Amino acid sequence: MPKVLIADKLSARAAEIFVQRGVEVEVATGLSEEELIARIGDYDGLAVRSATKATAAVLEAGGKGRLRVVGRAGIGVDNIDVAAATANGIVVMNTPYGNAVTTAEHAIAMMFSVARQIPAADRSTQAGKWEKSKFMGQELSGKTLGVIGCGNIGSIVCDRAQGLRMKVIAYDPFLSADRAKDLGVDKVELEELLGRADIITLHVPLTDQTRGMLDAKALAKCRKGVLIINCARGGLVVESDLKTALEAGQVGGAALDVFEVEPAYENPLFGTPNLICTPHLGASTAEAQENVALQVAEQMSDYLLDGAVVNALNMPSLTAEDAQHLGPYMTLAEQLGSFAGQLTRTGLKSIRVEYEGHVAGLNTRPLTQAVLLGVLRPMLDSVNMVNAPVLARQRDISVAETKYERDCDYQTLIRVTLETEKQVRSVAGTLFGGSKPRVVEIKGIQVEAQLGPHMLYLTNYDTPGVIGSVGRILAEAGMNIATFHLGRTSAGGDAICLIELDGSVPADVLARVRDLPQIKRAEPLRF
């Protein structure tokens, strides 16, 4: 039974879902890094919110043990070292939809608050003043809202803003023209957004590309008096530059829910005029906290029990239905990769995976990773579906995937081609009956073979007596042949032989086979 540690405060329903799904669960919150390192290897999954830090040291300890997945009940994964998780073969999941509405609504609330100076007016009124003329606000209707980042949350903000009769423009490199049309927004470049928007709201993750994207230079390009809303991530706005712009009147007001350093017990921005701050409340509603807790429990259970991958940051998505449907294809892909990988003895330069027929229309990203796993496993320890692409990149192995809709000799076909420092090797396979993996081509030679746990692969000259000589050696060693598959380029040319045996080939028996004059190469393979 898989076992999960809930390390942060989550809804009690999350633990109930794990148990109902057949996952053992323990709750231990407030653990120090040292305590987490000591315990994490005993769990298959780790569920967190934002308090627990899944550091590189924690994930390395987990990778040496049982840890397979870290689930974040929320969107941001600043508290999880995703690179370290990937290197240790651990899937990282978040829950991007559970708190999307809540965070979007908070951004709209902050927009209203800064536009109408509501917090300052409240403090003044409750202090016994009646400064009606002091708090002259501005309408949102008719204003141009610049949305930076048009994903789950940003798109909801666009919808709500249009309901307020605002003009919405959006900057997002990943926003397609069709999607922008569906949302009813104008897609623009960042420079244009800065110059046109009356209000700017940010809804992007914190990455090397987005860090400090609203700095002094960017703020200077904005319309004088622009309002800045940030309910996404601290660090997107350079706080010292925003303070200067607020004091100079270049920025007319700002509403921040996030800060570079949190908890923000103190901050250089505090006390700046026309500034509104909240303590990272974007996802802080009862509905959102319940949603993300339930969602992370379901996602982690799906992965641990069925192999389904949903909302992962370091692995292709794979629904439970896909996982079941792709199962035979995954086996075939890994076997083909393993076949080629076990025969590779020199530096590997590239891996090319080709899909033809029915398989070309499926979700092939997991299949390609299964190929990589098969290729690299004979060479590397601790390789799995998650870290295989990273390990390939670290070794400058290029990986290419090609799909063909053309007709082929088989209803479905996967071909794996490896280029090494000395040669190019290819192997192709298909599924018989929709579920039985078969190798159908090796080095361009047609062959039909089912791969068993113990195989002997031979390349030889196509001359009489090879089968008898090999069979005699195996028989004298008491080795039983399960299946025997042959293929050749032409009569008298190069030939190959795949023999399935009931056990592994002893070293002395392998040496005798290799000594036969007709044998060019003999290699034991394991599947």
Secondary-structure map with pairings?
Layout: E1 3-6, H1 12-21, E2 24-27, H2 33-39, E3 45-48, H3 56-64, E4 69-72, H4 82-87, E5 91-93, H5 100-116, H6 118-126, E6 144-148, H7 152-163, E7 167-171, H8 177-183, E8 186-187, H9 190-196, E9 199-202, H10 216-220, E10 226-230, H11 239-248, E11 251-256, E12 275-277, H12 286-306, H13 320-325, H14 327-342, E13 348-357, H15 365-376, H16 388-394, E14 398-404, E15 412-420, E16 424-432, E17 436-442, E18 445-449, E19 454-461, H17 466-476, E20 481-488, E21 494-501, H18 507-514, E22 519-526
Parallel strand pairs: 1-2, 1-3, 3-4, 4-5, 6-7, 6-9, 7-8, 9-10, 10-11, 11-12, 13-14
Antiparallel strand pairs: 13-15, 15-16, 16-17, 17-18, 19-21, 19-22, 20-21
Helix pairs in contact: 1-12, 2-3, 5-7, 14-15, 15-16
Number of domains: 4
What is the CA-atom radius of gyration, in angstroms?
30 Å
Strand content: 15-25%
Neighbour order of strands in the largest sheet: 8-7-6-9-10-11-12
CATH architecture name of the largest domain:
3-Layer(aba) Sandwich
Main beta-sheet annotation: 7 strands, parallel
Quick check: average pLDDT? 93
Tell me the span between the first and last alpha carbons: 26 Å
Tell the overall outline.
Answer: elongated
Q: Looking at this structure, what is the CATH superfamily of the largest domain?
A: NAD(P)-binding Rossmann-like Domain
Summing up helix and strand content along with how strands pair, one would put the structural category as alpha/beta
Which bin fits the share of residues in helices? 25-40%
Q: Unreliable stretches, pLDDT < 50, 5 or more residues?
A: none
Quaternary organization: single chain
The level 1 CATH classification of the largest domain is Alpha Beta
